[in-house]
Specification:
Beta-Lactamase, 22 strands, 22 helices, 6-stranded antiparallel β-sheet
């Protein structure tokens, strides 16, 4: 027995929706290229903001990876699709290795991404031993990534120096890429047990290690960060106290000095006698004593009168000058309190100064002037100097005012008196107007540290923050900072410490945990590959045997080498194969039997289908006939030709439904029956009589237990007959009689089939009858309407007389109608008459009928001047015809309107007369009013009302005259 190979059908409904290997390669290449390109663009944008070589290198690497994946991983450039997979996957893994080399604390992350993406790509695109090689390459790449990030000697960049938005965006892109890759792979997953074992083992090993390493790293980072914050806070508070002490000491000094008698006595003198006076000498000694306390930065001690004029100064060049606009002069006079100014720039030399001032009062408390001290602003640098390296190397303070301008900065003295963040032109102009910035070009008045400025603005809620500082052309340095607000001024002391120590400690811990995790993951992965191959070998052998059986080799047997569950599975599989061979043999026998039966049924169904198609064709053709006799003859002929029947006759009931009259037949005998008016009584004679009486179909044959004898001399060859009622709804209108020369030609199924055809014939007959009745009614309606129009327009013409409206160069004229041959011909034929000029004196004439519902009610007659040989164009004729149609409709509308107006006028007059009659209760008066109104309305010379004499009156009884004339 020949065994046919069974067809294997995948029951999974999603199987058909999976991508082909080529489509999967292209999608993975597209996703990888998009993700790598976005990451490269993000690093490039950050590199423009922070000119660091690592950022530019990694940006170039990821962009190159994007190009390789988009144009190579599509596999269209390779004959072997595996080459495209290896090229794209290798480019991605190489970029992650370089990422681990260039950035701190990223080795474990890079290794994890290499393993995750590698497993997804391999399980979705590779098969057989390629899976093992792909897994080994992925594990080796992950180990190289981890070791390279740990033992590298290349300077690394800390990712924490990146902006929070960029770090978040990188995490989102990486997570989205992994999710898309996972969903796409799982959707098309056909992985082997080897891949599943490796994937599960790596997940069990790597995920706990990654979580443990992350938790440990965060714990250490939090401890070190808290310690750093506390130390920074102590150093910042110490520095801020030193600046506050400096301000407080100088404010106390200037306040005490302002109360000295030397200043009060000098201001009490008349300005004309001050010079050379003993009070001036005493003032000089006092000022000299004050200045001797601070020789380096105290540049001027000045005494200002109430008008702001410098009456005496330790710097003779300033004596006599006006300082009335200075805030250090205005505020003490306004508030009566001591005052310390912001750092202000001089208009004379452009230097920066710090002013302390206090009001000078006499013994009665009256204001006499202002004493001010002017310090070189560099004294703030001096005050901050004691805090440099307070917490070790690379720690220093910075003093920033309320406008975020650096007042003092020992690490970068070149950047003092510059705003931290960029300023607009309006902001620069406003601040320079307050003398808070030097007179320099705008680009030299600020640095580009917007994150630093934002952190200072939020220092009230959180004084601790991380930032970075860099100069053009140098690498950015990550800094931990704390902002402490001064007590005397709304300034901040920012104490900064490079995060090198914290980073080094965290890197050391991360190296250790990452090294352990990577080595352990690599070892587990390689061991898993080895054992997965050993464990999966029997299953793969069993799969090959199943594939051979699926290909048609029913004699294939699984090799059983073990006694475990897999061995039991092999034995069960062999037993199943034996049973399957037996089932296939039985199935083939059943299939052969079923095939013969199906062939027989198919022949029957084809015959029935042909009959149904024939019924449909016949029904479609018969509905096109309009005449009833034509329809009936066409039905008889079509049914006879399509079904090869001997005789087809159509009977219709008469008006009283007493007889069924033969109306159509196809056979010669049927034609003779038609000629003599063959009819059968309903419900009595023959099969047709039974069918028309009962409304039920009937079959008769000359064989079988219900055999009948056909004795019709006109149809001597009939051996089978079927009569079908022609019904419209529940009403029987006739019968369809079908006869065959074949014995037992009709069955019960034929009744159902031909009943459908009979119903279609009945509906066609009824529709034809209704159509004929409708057409007759329409013709009668049109004739009545034409008579109505003839009568109405004849009356209109008799009332108006024969009138013609003529347009000439002289204008419009109305004159009696004059008959012309062209107009008479139009009235006769109802068609336009076009005449061209012929000979001398001839004229071109066009006569177009004015039609109203196929009735000519007028003619538009156009005529050219004499000797004008004009040829009327088709467009001109059509235009005049269109105008004529509109004129006809307009005339009809005008006529109907006039009639409506006259009827309304008549009704109005009747109503008016009726109202006048009802106004009187006297019968004699009522009759008189009626006659008068009728005479006036109808314009007659005499009107009378005749009242018949009642028959009950006697002959000799006096009868009054019933006439009541009204002249």
């Amino acid at each position: 027995m020949t065994q046919s190979a069974p067809q294997i059908v995948n029951p999974d409904p999603q199987f058909q929706s999976r991508d082909t290997p080529l489509q999967l390669d292209r999608r993975i290449g597209l996703y990888t290229g998009i993700a790598a390109g976005l990451i490269g663009l993000m690093f490039l944008s950050q590199g423009i903001t922070q000119p660091v070589i690592q950022l530019f290198i990694i940006a170039a690497v990821f962009m190159l990876t994007a190009l390789i994946n988009i144009f190579s991983l599509e596999t269209v450039n390779f004959k072997d699709p595996r080459v495209g997979v290896y090229v794209g996957l290798g480019a991605l893994q190489l970029s992650l290795i370089i990422f681990a080399l260039l950035f701190t604390n990223t080795s474990l992350i890079a290794a994890s991404l290499i393993i995750i993406t590698g497993v997804f790509v391999i399980s979705g695109q590779l098969r057989g031993r390629d899976v093992d090689w792909g897994v080994v390459i992925t594990l080796v790449a992950a180990m190289i990534s981890g070791l390279a990030g740990i033992i590298t000697a290349i300077p690394q960049y800390n990712l924490s120096n990146l902006s929070f938005q960029l770090r978040l965006f990188l995490i989102i892109i990486a997570a989205a890429y992994v999710i898309f890759l996972g969903v796409l792979t799982l959707r098309n997953l056909t992985s082997t047990i080897t891949v599943k074992l490796i994937t599960s083992s790596l997940a069990i090993t790597l995920i706990p290690l990654l979580l443990l390493s992350t938790i440990q790293t965060d714990f250490i980072r939090n401890i070190v960060q808290n310690q750093t914050n506390q130390a920074l806070k102590l150093a910042g508070e110490e520095t801020a106290n030193r600046i506050d002490d400096f301000f407080s000491a100088n404010l106390d000094q200037v306040e005490r000095a302002a109360s000295l008698s030397a200043f009060i006595n000098y201001l009490n003198l008349d300005p004309m006698v001050r010079e050379g006076s003993s009070q001036e000498q005493q003032l000089a000694l006092t000022i000299g004593s004050l200045k001797a306390q601070e020789q380096a930065y105290l540049t001027s001690i000045g005494l200002l009168d109430l008008q702001g004029r410098n009456v005496y100064d330790s710097n003779p060049a300033l004596t006599g000058g006006s300082e009335d606009t200075g805030e250090y002069f205005v505020q003490p006079l306004r508030t009566g309190q001591i005052f310390v100014s912001s750092v202000l720039f001089s208009d004379q030399n452009g230097d920066a100064y710090l002013y302390f001032s206090a009001p000078v009062r006499n013994s009665s408390g009256q204001l006499m002037g202002v004493l001010r001290l002017r310090y070189d602003a560099l004294i703030l640098q001096e005050e901050l100097g004691a805090s440099v390296n307070l917490l070790g190397a690379r720690t220093y303070p910075m003093l920033i005012d309320e406008l975020n301008i650096r007042i003092a900065d020992l690490a970068r003295p070149s950047e003092i008196y510059k705003a931290i963040a960029p300023l607009t032109a309006d902001q620069i102009a406003s601040i320079q107007a307050q003398k808070r910035l030097p007179d320099l070009p705008p680009e030299q008045l600020y640095t580009n540290l917007p994150d630093f400025a934002t952190s200072l603005e939020q220092a009230g809620a959180n004084p601790y923050f991380n930032t970075y500082l860099y100069e053009s052309g140098t690498a950015a340095r990550g800094m931990s900072a704390v902002a402490i607000r001064l007590k005397n001024k709304p300034w901040n002391v920012v104490f900064l410490q490079e995060r090198t120590a914290l980073i080094n400690l965290l890197q050391e811990r991360n190296r250790t945990s990452s090294l352990i995790a990577i080595l352990l993951a690599g070892a587990v992965g390689l061991i898993t590959v080895l054992f997965a191959r050993i464990f999966s070998r029997p299953i793969l052998s069993l799969r090959e045997t199943a594939a051979n059986i699926a290909a048609g080799d029913m004699n294939a047997q699984a090799t059983v080498t073990t006694r475990d569950e897999i061995g039991a599975l092999g034995q069960t599989f062999n037993l199943m194969t034996q049973q399957l061979r037996g089932f296939i043999g039985e199935l083939e026998d059943r299939v052969n039997e079923r095939t013969v039966e199906l062939a027989r049924q198919n022949d029957s169904l084809q015959l029935r289908s042909q009959q149904l198609q024939t019924v449909s064709d016949v029904a479609r053709q018969i509905v096109s006939a309009r005449e009833l006799e034509t329809l009936l003859n066409q039905v008889a002929i079509l049914i006879s030709e399509r079904f090869n029947f001997y005789h087809v006759g159509i009977f219709l009931l008469d008006q009283n439904s007493e007889f069924a009259l033969l109306r159509a037949a196809n056979s010669a005998g049927g034609q003779r029956m038609l000629a003599r008016g063959h009819k059968l009584r309903v419900g009595e004679v023959g099969m047709v009589g039974f069918t028309t009486g009962s409304g039920q179909a009937r079959i008769a044959t000359d064989v079988g237990k219900d055999a009948v004898f056909f004795n019709n001399p006109d149809l001597p060859e009939t051996r089978s007959e079927m009569a079908l009622p022609l019904k419209v709804g529940d009403e029987v209108i006739g019968a369809l009689d079908v006869q065959s020369v074949v014995s037992n030609a009709f069955t019960a199924e034929d009744i159902s089939l031909f009943s459908t055809l009979a119903d279609q014939v009945a509906i066609a007959i009824r529709n034809n009858q209704l159509y004929s009745e409708t057409m007759r009614a329409l013709e009668e309606s049109q004739k009545l309407h034409q008579q109505y129009l003839q009568q109405e327009w004849g009356q209109e013409a008799s009332e108006r007389g024969d009138v013609a409206y003529i347009y000439t160069p002289s204008g419009m004229m109305v004159r009696p109608y004059v008959s012309t041959p062209e107009v008479d011909r139009v009235f006769e034929t109802r068609r336009p008459v076009i005449k061209q000029a012929e000979g001398t004196g001839g004229r071109s004439v066009m006569a177009i009928p004015v039609m109203l519902r196929d009735e000519v009610i007028g003619v538009i007659h156009l005529q050219e001047a004499e000797n004008t040989n004009r040829e009327w164009s088709g467009e001109e004729v059509a235009t005049v015809q269109s105008v004529a149609d509109q004129v006809g409709q307009a005339l009809e509308n005008a006529r109907l309107f006039e009639r409506t107006v006259r009827r309304a006028e008549r009704e109005r007059k009747v109503l008016d007369i009726t109202s006048r009659i009802r106004a009187s209760n006297d019968p004699q008066r009522m009759v008189q009013i009626a006659l008068e109104e009728l005479q006036r309305a109808l314009r007659v010379s005499r009107a009378q009302v005749l009242i018949q004499t009642p028959p009950t009156l006697s002959e000799d009884e006096d009868v009054s005259d019933s006439e009541s004339p009204a002249e």
